Structures are given as C-alpha cells and as structure tokens.
Amino acid sequence: MLLSLQKGRPFDLAVDVGCGSGQGTLLLAPHFTQVIGTDISPAQLEVALANSSCPAEELPFADGGADLVTSMTTAHWFDRPRFLQEADRLLKPRGCLALISYTLDMDVEYGQHSHSLTDICHQVR
C-alpha cells in the first residue's frame, strides 16, 4: 500500500467520501483504527448503516486528522477544486488521497498543481 511507503504504520483514520452503500468502506476497515464513510444520499447511508450525511466539500473532521481520504467512483460528481482543498485540509502530513474510478480520464483542477495532478491521472488509467 502506498500509504505504508509514505507514512508507515499505524494507520489511524480513513475517510471514504461518497461511500454509497459502504462496500469500499468495509474493505478499508481492517487496515485502520477508524474508518468513516460519508455520503450525501440518505438512502445510500441507510444501506451503509450510517445515520448522517455531508457533502464532500464540507467534511466534519478536524484539520490534519486523516491518514487516508478516498473517493471510490464518486469524485466526478464533486466540486473538484473545493473537494481537493477539503481533502488537503483533512490529511495528515504524508497522508494519501486516493481517487478510485472506472476511468480517470478527467482533468483535476487544484491551483498550481492542476497540470501535474491531471498528468498523474492520465498515466495510471
């Protein structure tokens, strides 16, 4: 896992943004002390056995508290610049943002890093 190389263990908090029914959230659970899935859809959260919702661009977590922020097949729905700023706020130093999708054929906009992030997405598709 890239996070192991970047940070080393233990892994404390993973935030799965746009978790839907929680399928990906459950896959993260064995590797972190705490995994929290968020979604804007109350129906999806019911399936995930959660009882609150929040938008990806306004996550209710402290600054610098997450080792990992994921978005599995949902990032294309977000206000990308705002979401990336929010993920940056949440992540610990050397933390990891993982955008997982069926395709990464998208442009990523985040200030002066936009071109580099888009290049990375295009390299791994």
How would you characterize this protein structure?
One of its GO terms (molecular function) is S-adenosylmethionine-dependent methyltransferase activity. The protein has a single domain (12-24, 34-53, 62-123), classed as Vaccinia Virus protein VP39 (Rossmann fold, 3-Layer(aba) Sandwich). By secondary structure, it is of the alpha/beta class. Strand 1 (13-17), helix 2 and strand 2 form a beta-alpha-beta unit. It is 30% helix and 22% strand.
Concise description?
One of its GO terms (molecular function) is S-adenosylmethionine-dependent methyltransferase activity. The chain is an alpha/beta fold and 125 residues long.
Q: Please provide the count of β strands.
A: 4
What's the arrangement of strands in the largest beta sheet?
Answer: 2-1-3-4
* Overall pLDDT level: 77
Following the backbone from N to C, one meets helices and strands in this order, namely HEHEHEHEH
Q: Please give the CATH class.
A: Alpha Beta
Class of secondary structure makeup = alpha/beta
- N-end to C-end Cα span: 18 Å
List the helices and strands and how they pair.
Blueprint (H helix, E strand, L loop, with lengths): L1 H5 L6 E5 L5 H6 L5 E5 L3 H6 L18 E7 L7 H11 E10 L13 H10 L2
Parallel strand pairs: 1-2, 1-3, 3-4
Key descriptive features of the protein:
125 residues; alpha/beta; Rossmann fold; four-stranded parallel sheet; 5 helices; 22% strand; Diverse_substrate_MTase
